[in-house]
Design a protein that fits this description.
Helix content: 55-70%
Number of strands: 2
Strand order of the largest sheet: 1-2
Distance between the termini: 5 Å
Strand content: under 5%
Largest sheet: 2 strands, antiparallel
Number of helices: 22
Structural class: mainly alpha
Amino acid sequence: MRLYVIFRYVGFVILLNSFFLLISTLISFFYHESSFYPLLYSTIITILFGVFPIIFVPSIDDITYTEGLLIVVGAWILSVFIGTIPYVMWGGEFSFTNAIFESVSGYTTTGSTILNQIESLPLGILFWRASTHWIGGMGIIVFVLSVMPSLGSAGLVLYRSEMSPTALRQFKMRSRDAVRIILWVYVGLTTIETILLMFAGMNLFDAVTHAFSTVATGGFSTKNASVAAFHSLSIEIIIMVFMLLSGMNFALLFAAVTGRFKEVKASSVLKYYVGANIVVILLVALNIWGHNYHTFWQSLRYSAFQVLSVGTSTGFANADSSVWPPFAQMALVLMTLQCASAGSTSGGIKVDRIVVFLKAIAREIKQNLHPNAIINIIMDGKKLEEDLVYSAILYIVIYVVIVAVAGLLVSAMGVDMVSAYSGAAATMGNVGPGLGFLGSLENYSSLPAAAKWVYSLTMLLGRLEIYGLIIFFLPSTWKRKA
């Protein structure tokens, strides 16, 4: 394995982080904040670590798929440690464990936080916190490819290493075109939402940071009470719309914008995604109507926001769902496991795999009724290969097992079962809020330190879709020849 190749390309990622750190530093300087020097030192350290491998390692285009995978996972892990530096230097609630947790949560767009007093943080730290969402939401390597399209054939390998197989099936185009589409949709959604939130009453800073979090389906807010702090129906509606859009496959969003509506109408995944959210919103609204809220429209408002929030793995909150009836809470947990579409910024199992899973169940039932029949699984008018069906089902099984094991480990640390398992599901799905004392208006600060490390691992496993992180730590991977 050519380590120098890995160091060179990870250097580009480090420099990308330094750019957002520099902006955070300038914000802190402008407002004369105590975070200025921690952010300045963090920026200098990050620039130096990013520049050295780029200067001393020559440009190499012929990287292997294994090297590409190691670059991608290595970039994510190193970014997490970079994100930790300004937190630790600034201090406050950020012990090393808390800083790691907050950084992992930011880059993986989970939105779980250990902070009790978010509103006491300097604006520079708050902007950096939101920036980790925006960097991680698009995908760290995809982000680098979008600003450095000259990486040649290496870019193709890196793109295929970053994107999950499920997402790659949706982007049936050259990697350069796919990256361009992702960039334009991502930036476009962020810009439009920022403008709309300002019209709805947010100031520029809150509008930008909440747009970063929404489009990245992250959930970090500048307020202790999340979106509930604004007490604004118009703000909630805007965020709901953009959560729903950000959970859609970006290739389909681009097709809709460019007038190719046939592709949008033909998508069975999109139909299931929208339909599932509508059904669950209505069921939850009926369940909390009369129990938590007096009118149906009030129930619908809070149900729609909370369901879309967890169903897209965003994690914002406009109500305390931990006091809702058991049915409503279980519905939220199921949406936490499923989440949104592949090719979006969402986490979770992804609705694409759920659709394949349901079609596989339907085929099995038909096969039992007609043992001699040859029954194929058809998706959007095309036959699915058996290896794709198998990989989707296997992924779901492994995913659920990891959630179960993580929940078991955390419950062994003295955390109650509801909080432990919902926290495992929420962090694995990059959703954020769980149930119990990890509810939508609570945080993860009271967890034991070991539990925070377990959940940090599940956040990374969920964002890297399990296999990448496992392969990275296999000794045999590093012994392979380039």
